[in-house]
Design brief:
Elements (H helix, E strand, L loop, with lengths): L1 H22 L8 H22 L8 H17 L4 H23 L4 H21 L16 E2 L2 E2 L3 H24 L1 H11 L1 H6 L4 H26 L10 H14 L4 H22 L8 H20 L4 H15 L17
Helix pairs in contact: 2-6, 2-9, 2-10, 2-11, 3-4, 3-5, 3-9, 4-9, 6-7, 6-9, 7-9, 10-11, 10-12, 11-12
Length: about 350
């Protein structure tokens, strides 16, 4: 009976969250913000694996979002590849890019690795701005609607549900990965790479593998975003967007897959509120960009000072403390990676 209750307590909250997420889109008029937030959550779930569980750092996750978007744009507009094939190839291309750049880059550590990943994004932006095949500074227009055989995915509502499905699949994959033997080795990296290596963990291959998974998640997000827009250019993937992914992961809680989702929603809502403030009549146009940069900085500083572990790990820890004080035990399904950092 106790096992049944525990299993139900673990399964019910995610099911409720999924049901609420599916119920929201029909209630909204414009779903642009919803889709963008869901796709950001998809990227941050992968980034949480890489930063929170494997203990690495990346400031250039937008490079793999761009790789996914470019794959869709180039294959569908330049080569006539069916849109569903382009969608499925996008995470593969992003994953291959992550493997190619990750093998040398992941020999670096700390801020050297962070700036190395940022350099990948800047190089990709330069390629998009100069090579005609990739937009040549103008961008790629006219990306066709996503089609699965004779069925076309049209309208914002369909893309909203596609984004929800993508985040759901990513969470399941990431959860199983963390709980696997590979996941135990991955978590060991966050503590000490030397100790992990001494325990038999293939450090280099493990870091690259996690980087590839995170890159593939980002690539799929970029592909869906390209179909949704439907336009890509070097300005679609600014460095500030990559910084935002890191802030979302920190705010939600590194070492928690649900932290990636919660952080993406919290930071996106915060920036949307600032955007609404900047649109107040009478304010100069420069207020918008200033508030966006200030908003990122403010929320990061506040959370690092007041909630350094992030939203989800902090709530989970308090719930466990209260349960222990009552003499009971409370399964906390939101913190899948309690063994990770933070």
């Amino acid at each position: 009976m106790t096992d049944t209750r525990g299993r139900l307590a673990r399964i019910l909250p995610p099911v409720v969250v999924l049901a609420v997420a599916c119920a929201i889109p029909p209630l909204l008029g414009d779903l642009t913000f919803f889709v963008q937030t869901a796709l950001a959550a998809l990227v941050v779930v992968g980034l949480s694996l890489f930063m929170g569980y494997a203990g690495q750092t990346s400031l250039g996750q937008g490079a793999f979002v761009a790789a996914g978007g470019l794959t869709v744009a180039v294959l569908t507009t330049q080569f006539g590849v069916p849109s569903i094939v382009a969608l499925l190839l996008a995470p593969v291309v992003a994953g291959v890019l992550a493997a190619v750049v990750g093998w040398p880059l992941l020999r670096l550590r700390g801020h050297y690795l962070a700036f190395g990943t940022l350099a990948v994004l800047l190089i990709l932006q330069t390629v998009m701005a100069t090579v005609p095949l990739f937009g040549g500074g103008i961008g790629i227009f006219g990306i066709p609607a996503l089609a699965i055989g004779p069925i076309q995915v049209q309208g914002q509502l369909a893309y909203a549900y596609l984004a929800i499905a993508a985040v759901t699949v990513a969470m399941i994959v990431a959860h199983n990965l963390v709980r696997s033997r590979f996941g135990r080795g991955m978590r060991a990296l966050a503590g000490s790479e030397s100790a992990a290596s001494a325990s038999g963990v293939a450090v280099a291959r493990t870091k690259v593998a996690v980087f590839v998974v995170a890159g593939s998640f980002a690539g799929f997000a970029g592909a869906v975003g390209a179909f949704f827009t439907p336009y890509v250019s070097q300005d679609t993937y600014p460095p500030l967007l990559s910084f935002g992914y890191v802030i979302m992961a920190v705010v939600g809680g590194l070492g928690s897959l649900w932290g990636g989702v919660v952080g993406a929603v919290a930071v996106s809502v915060w920036l949307q509120l600032l955007s609404a403030v900047s649109a107040t009549p009478g304010l100069p146009p420069v207020v918008g960009p200033v508030l966006q940069y200030a908003g990122y900085g403010l929320i990061l500083v506040v959370f690092l000072l007041l909630v350094p572990r992030g939203i989800v790990p902090t709530i989970a820890a308090r719930a466990r403390t209260r349960a222990a004080a009552r003499g009971g035990s409370a399964p906390i399904p939101v913190s899948v990676g309690s063994a990770g950092r933070g």
